[in-house]
Design goal:
Strand content: 15-25%
Helix content: 25-40%
Order of helices and strands: EHEHEEHE
Distance between the termini: 15 Å
Radius of gyration: 13 Å
Strand order of the largest sheet: 1-2-4-3-5
Number of strands: 5
Largest sheet: 5 strands, mixed
Number of helices: 3
């Protein structure tokens, strides 16, 4: 199982997500950009489930101080049935959405 929290920079993010989709066993934390072509081509066709987080997350710096929130909401993406069940049953506030039941 892979935990993927890629940098929120455009050029690199989808390379990591595509590799995880091919691997098929993991959870990724991504910007909630459902309207993007890559999101629709990769996530909607290959992921097993998504957890749309209710509130914006907060990042912490290496020294432990709290950083800013991202410019938009975040979503957890599951690849593989077991990972989808983890998101479905977790205690995080948000909305779980099932995708591709056959994955």
């Amino acid at each position: 199982r892979i935990w993927l929290n890629p940098p929120y920079s455009k050029p690199l993010i989808w390379q990591f997500v595509e590799k995880l989709a091919e691997h098929g066993n993991g959870i990724a934390l991504l910007f909630n950009r459902c309207d993007s072509n890559k999101f629709q081509d990769i996530i909607f066709t290959k992921a097993t489930g998504m957890m749309f987080l209710r509130n914006r997350i907060k990042f912490f710096r290496p020294d432990g101080t709290r950083g800013d929130s991202p410019g938009c909401g975040s979503v957890l993406i599951a690849f593989g049935r077991e990972n989808a069940e983890i998101l479905r049953n977790c205690s995080l506030q948000g909305k779980y959405v099932e995708l591709n039941n056959d994955k």
